[in-house]
Amino acid sequence: MKEENFFYIDNILHYKISDKESLSFDFLKGRLFNRLKRIEHESLFKKAIGKNKAQLKIFDATAGSLIDTIIFLKLGHEVVACEQSKILYRLLDDAIFRAKKEYNFFEKLSLINSDSAKIIDSYLDSDIFYFDPMFNKSNQNLKRSGLLQKISHILRHESLDDTSRLIFEDLLKKKYRKIIIKRPIKSDPLRKENINYQVKGKAVRYDIYINSQSS
User: Which helix (H) or strand (E) covers residue 15, if one does?
Assistant: First the structure.
């Protein structure tokens, strides 16, 4: 991570990817802001979470662009979001700092710069563990999404691998209440035999794993 690659435009922190491209996050306007207003995402999330009016503790093991985390926050829940990329973390931290002036639900967010595998055991009391593994690099979703391409570029630049599958498999051996995995609609589940139910949209679905033995 080169410090000189960080720069500001209109008080928004950017990271230079190439001479023509940079990455930044803004939850107050633009594409990310517009995605946050989509009702479909919230309805799918509500079905995945289940009928529960109480505030839940959610551990997001793959923060990414933070869009899914923010939807959890908008639904009234408390979220710990983990992002292992130092670059993405700084850009997200900047976006959150600016967005806090407009949205008070960010007060229920804890953003942590770490590999989820190193800290997840400290959050085993979470009501929900959420995973959004990076889609396969050859997947058409990456080709269509400039944002995903930029995030993927940064992860490769930092030599970071998507370890969410391994973390998920390890978590299944421990005490958990509910795990939600976001997947492309036509992709195989990370593990078929443990799925309790699925929530399907047009492009993505949520595979839900519930531990009936958890108290």
Answer: strand 12-16
| Four-residue CA torsion sign, 114, 117, 119, 124 | positive
d(CA 55, CA 68): 16
* Separation in Å, CA 6 to CA 26, 31, 86, 215: 15, 21, 12, 46
User: Do 59 and 113 meet the contact criterion of CB atoms below 8 Å apart?
Assistant: no
CA-only gyration radius of the chain, Å = 17
Is 192 strand, coil or helix?
A: coil
Q: Global pTM?
A: 0.89
pLDDT in tens, 9-31: 999 999 999 999 999 999 888 77
Q: What is the architecture of the domain spanning 3-210?
A: 3-Layer(aba) Sandwich (3.40)
